Every structure is written in C-alpha cells, then in structure tokens.
Amino acid sequence: MSVQESVNRFFKECKRVLRVSKKPNREEYLNFSKVTAIGIAILGVIGFIIALVFQLIGI
Prior knowledge:
Elements: H1 3-20, H2 26-57
C-alpha cells in the first residue's frame, strides 16, 4: 500500500466518522459533564487520601 493510498483511506475514514457523529443534545451534554465531574472528584479524593497517608507515615 502506497503512502497516497493510506492517506486517501485515512481521509475517507475521517469523512465517515464526521458523517455519523452528531452534536450532543442538552441532556447528553449534562450527563457527560456530571460523569466527568464525578471522575475528577474521585481522583482528587484518592490523591488527598494518599497524601494524607504519606504525611501520617512520615515519608
């Protein structure tokens, strides 16, 4: 497969993805935002707990 064929194939796949994709409606956007915020909060709590444990151990 030549470089030009692989580039053409890549652009065809990009066009297909853009045709299939759609803009999220308000409900989908809010759900995505909630899940993202919960994930960030969980990671923050885990980081805080790890920092607290290290401070208590004295490392």
